[in-house]
Write a structure and sequence with these properties.
Elements lengths: L2 H8 L6 E5 L4 H15 L4 E8 L6 H14 L3 E6 L9 H19 L4 E3 L4 H13 L4 H4 L5 E4 L2 E4 L7 H10 L16 H16 L3 H29 L1 E3 L3 E5 H6 L2 H11 L8 H11 L7 E3 L2 E6 L2 E6 L9 H10 L10 H12 L6
Parallel strand pairs: 1-2, 1-4, 2-3, 4-6
Antiparallel strand pairs: 5-6, 7-8, 8-11, 9-10, 10-11
């Protein structure tokens, strides 16, 4: 079965060069070898990228093993090293962010538009259970998407519906050794505990990976429809000021369905991840009644001024006085003359327009 080619065709991607993230585990090795095998007949090139995170003593050795294996199969390979001091807490999330940053930077610098990663069905099931444990909303429970974009990079996961046992069989048939990452079973991390729990869940309830993935696919279908409605609402109701602050009418907000309130706030107050559902719900409930004295979420400040809900990048005001500067600003942009703009929104807007801090 031509899994990689099929997924690329599904999204009409015919790029001549495709990158693959390769850790040395069975899943990513199977992906890069299968991608190279499928695409080489069309003259398309596969480049393997390995991130040496430096979190285990063997990480460099594992990266070098992948490099040797890629040479054996004639696949271009690069090792990307995570430099600098590693955090003492939240290491899983920090490592994930660093990995995508390194992969994304290499792809952008080398004009590669598509990155393949080897997430599989068990990853999907584990992610669903982890987000269920955290009380995620529908968007979070939709888990991992086959197609996503991150800072302009297209990320595809061709193996998302595949069982990882198939990868091991694929490599064993070719007598190719793979790396076993001991952190995968480390119960100090939630994913490790969930991974150990999955067989018990199946044994005592009949709920297995396939059934969880089917449920996730159904949730994704519902999410796609709601997402369409959300996009329509964002276009119709939310105004952006110089792509740095946004606002919507509080009266309009009160008329929205609770799910739309949740979705709009989660979208406008997110960075690289979805804010915790309970935090978004608390903000939505606070905005449902007056007086609303302000809040923060996801690195954003939420303010209510003269009937407008403003969402502003969180910042220190440092006692800056903006009256004269704002007068100069509205002289150039008169549409803002009659609008009561919060002080912090003024700072963010002027910083964006002037392009540097010394003006304010």
């Amino acid at each position: 079965m031509q899994i990689v080619e099929e997924v690329l065709n599904r999204y009409h991607l015919d790029d001549a060069k495709i990158a693959v993230g390769v850790s040395g585990g069975a899943d990513s090795l199977a992906l890069v070898l299968q991608a190279a095998e499928e695409l080489s007949v069309f003259g398309r090139k596969v480049v393997a990228l390995t991130v040496d995170h430096g979190l285990r003593p063997t990480s460099q050795q594992e990266a070098e093993y992948v490099a040797g294996l890629m040479r054996r199969f004639g696949i271009e390979h690069h090792i990307l090293v995570w430099q600098g001091v590693k955090p003492q807490t939240g290491i899983e999330e920090a490592a994930r962010q660093a990995r995508y940053a390194l992969l994304g930077n290499w792809c952008r610098q080398n004009n590669v538009r598509v990155l393949l990663t080897a997430h599989h069905a068990k990853d999907q099931a584990e992610t669903f259970l982890m987000r269920l444990q955290r009380g995620s909303g529908l968007e979070g429970l939709c888990g991992i998407r086959e197609y996503s974009e991150r800072d302009g990079l297209i990320i595809l996961r061709p193996f998302l519906r595949q069982n990882p046992e198939d990868f091991r069989a694929y490599l064993q048939q070719r007598k190719i050794a793979y790396v076993e990452d001991e952190s995968n079973t480390d119960t100090a991390f939630l994913r490790g505990r969930v991974r150990q729990f999955l067989p018990q869940l199946h044994k005592y309830t009949g709920i297995d990976v396939a059934k969880i993935c089917k449920a996730v696919n159904n949730l994704q279908s519902a999410e796609d429809y709601i997402g369409q409605q959300l996009e329509n609402l964002l276009v119709q109701e939310v105004l952006w000021d110089f792509e740095t602050v946004c606002r919507f009418r509080h009266a309009s907000y009160l008329s929205w369905h609770n799910e739309m309130k949740f979705r709009v706030l989660a979208r406008l107050c997110r960075r690289n991840y979805i804010p915790r559902a309970e935090s978004v719900i608390q903000l939505a409930e606070a905005l449902n009644k007056l007086p609303f004295t302000g809040a923060t979420l996801g690195g954003r400040e939420i303010l209510l001024t003269d009937g407008w809900v403003w969402i502003v990048p969180e910042q220190k005001t440092k006692g800056q006085k903006t009256r004269k500067l704002w007068q100069d600003f509205v002289a150039v942009f008169p549409d803002y003359k009659e609008l009561k703009v919060p002080h912090k929104a003024k700072l963010a807007i002027m910083k964006k327009v002037w392009g540097k801090d010394d003006h304010i």
